[in-house]
Amino acid sequence: MDDPSKSSKTRRIILFPLPFQGHINPMIQLANILHSKGFTISIIHTHFNSPDPSKYPHLTFHFIPVGLSEDQASIHDILRALHLLNTECIGPSRECLRKLLATHDDIQCMITDAMMYCSKDVVEDLGIHRIVLRTSSVCSFLAFATLPLLQEKGYFSDHHNNLESRRDDPVPELPPLRVKDIPSIQRPNPNDALKIIRNMVQGTKTASGLILNTFQELEEPNLDYLCQHFRMPTFLIGPFHKFFSAASSSLLTQDRSAISWLDTQKPDSVLYVSFGSLAAMDEDHVTEVAWGLANSMQPFLWVVRPGLVQGSEWLESLPNEFLEITSKRGYIVKWAPQQEVLSHPAVGGFWTHSGWNSVLESICEGVPMICSSFFSDQTVNSRYINDVWKLGIKLECGLKREEIESAIRKILMLDREGQEIRERALCLKVKIQVSLKTDGFSSQSLNALSDLISSFQSSCV
Ligand code: UDX
Q1: Within 6 Å (CB) of ligand 1, which residues are found?
Q2: Would you say 116 and 17 are in contact if contact means Cβ atoms under 8 Å apart?
Q3: Strand 234-236 vs strand 300-303: parallel, antiparallel, or unpaired?
Q4: For 50-79, how does the pLDDT look when each residue is reduced to its tens digit (9 = 90+)?
Q5: Residue 114's closest CA among 13, 210, 26?
Q6: Nearest C-alpha to atom 20 of ligand 1 is from which residue?
Q7: Do 215 and 293 reside in the same domain of the chain?
Q8: 19 C-alpha to ligand 1 centroid (Å)
Q9: In what order do the strands lie in the sheet containing 330-333?
Q10: Per the structure, how many domains does the chain have?
């Protein structure tokens, strides 16, 4: 615990992250950004998936006794984990916040992950402003916000949910999405997901402000629609990792031999493949991935996270023949220093699961993408990358070796489409650099956020 502060000079912000890798990274980056703006930062964190506080001597951590068993935290049932976290965290986090308010007179506000929708109840009656951080894109957040309308229109009913016949139909309420891109529609029972999403959207609507880890130049087409849905001060201050890297908040050890291997490869020749921290696939799918990589004949660096392949410790399900054939041009690690990989000159493309941090990290380095999607915002992100931003190729048929092979060749061997994608990616990389300059949009937006937080009266109980 830190010393009780009674100084009127400090301005303290309490952060409350969702304890999963793709959400911890942006929240810790935001902590660093706000600290660099002169704020004092305290973080309420579960014991579950806690980052190492010794890496952040400038931040104060307050751990709450909430843990999930291995079974409860299973990546195969993320919805249950989200529900449990939101239920289990209310009491301990409220108690922790109450104690902080009793011992500090400098607390300006709390910033919570949108998925920690329980924070609405946590702050109730405590007289503290709550700002929500949505760690993903505007386009996917708007898709979430529109799900109740789609539900009313029958998209999730059994009759309409005949996915096989309607998968590729357009969704007029959310162009350019197709039915198969609607988050959660592929679930056998989408109601649990819809309930969680509804809570997240409602929890955000009652907040004093909304922060998004994205940037104006990318999301321009949807900003008016965002303001209609979320009528509160909104701040697009990303990409966060360009202020502070995500390496220090990695929960797994990053294998640096990936960089030594890349050093031996030709410029723009390697496909980097990673499906993030949560996605899982079965043996049939991993076989398609493997043969797609092998048949493309291109060099690749593949992150096979333990747990990626259901029922496998690590590489046992990969065909032996695949490992032999690709041993000279493929390299496999359990977890990579991703940002460094993406900025390496040898990397010419990124096959991603379309998790938002990965997408932003790729865009910032001007690396063209091949997009898969597994759940949540990923389906929307990948549709935008393919259809709107045209920064990559979406695999429309799921994981099929022929489509994979063809996409890899387009991206790495640069046919006309591949060349145009690369040019657009490099052009956007420059726009981001402008946005992050002192007079750029993201920087200005960050100043506005800092002003809003400073304008709040500090709270105490
Ligand atoms: C989850 C959801 O899957 C995603 O849809 C949502 O947008 C955020 O939460 P996750 O699967 O963790 O995200 O993917 P992503 O958002 O891409 O974040 C992964 C983070 O882990 C990135 O910051 C990436 O740099 C890092 N990473 C990934 C590594 O450090 N090493 C790796 O080998 C792979």
Answers
A1: 21-23, 25, 135-136, 246, 250, 254, 274, 276-279, 303, 335-336, 338-339, 355-358, 361, 376-378
A2: yes
A3: unpaired
A4: 999 999 999 999 999 987 877 777 767 888
A5: 210
A6: 22
A7: no
A8: 13
A9: 330-333, 300-303, 270-274, 347-352, 369-371, 392-394
A10: 2
Specify the ligand 1 atom closest to the Cα of 25. 23
Q: Return the ligand 1 atom nearest residue 305 CA.
A: 33
- Residue with the smallest CA separation from ligand 1 atom 4 is 355
| pTM as predicted | 0.95
Predicted local confidence at residue 72, as pLDDT: 78
Give the CATH number, domain containing residue 49: 3.40.50.2000
Q: How many CA atoms lie within 13 A of 287 on its CB side?
A: 7
pLDDT digits (tens, 9 = 90+) for 202-231: 999 999 999 999 999 999 989 999 999 999
- Copy the structure tokens of residue 323: 């490992």
Backbone angles phi, psi at 186, to 5 degrees: -80, -10
Residue 458 CB coordination number (10 Å): 18
Domain that holds residue 449: 7-243+436-455
Condensed to tens digits (0 to 9), the pLDDT of residues 115-126 reads 999 999 999 999
Q: Compute the C-alpha angle 170/426/364, nearest 5°.
A: 80
Instruction: Show the DSSP H helices in 132-180 as ranges.
Output: 138-152, 163-166
Q: What pLDDT is recorded for position 118?
A: 97
233 and 299 share one domain: no
* Amino acid in the structure at residue 299: P
Contacts of 276 (CB under 8 A, 6+ apart): 21, 22, 352, 353, 355, 357, 358
- The residues near 224 (Cβ < 8 Å, ≥ 6 apart) are none
pLDDT computed for residue 1 by the predictor:
38
d(CA 45, CA 64): 6
CA–CA dist 275, 372 (Å, integer): 8
Q: Which of 18, 21, 85 for a ligand 1 pocket mutation test, highest count of atoms within 8 Å of Cβ? A: 21
